[in-house]
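Quick log. Single chain, no ligands specified.
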Amino acid sequence: MFAETVEKVVKFIKNTKIKHSFCQGAYQVLSWKQYADICTSMGQFLVGYSKFCDLWNQLCPFILIMQLATDLCWTCQKNNN
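-> predicted structure:
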């Protein structure tokens, strides 16, 4: 049962696409909320937020949030920060 749940979490993480820009933590919270909503609506067992993040970090470390891209030169970008 648990292995099947882990497989579903990993599949969800790999298939989730969010079009907005977030920091990693906010992205994980939003992803978990979507995951929880889907599991609840389908009557499936779901893992808690901390386990969701643990599984993400252990089994999908290659899925990261890209930093905001800018087309500014280094001087202007440094001044913006």
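The longest helix spans residues 24-42.
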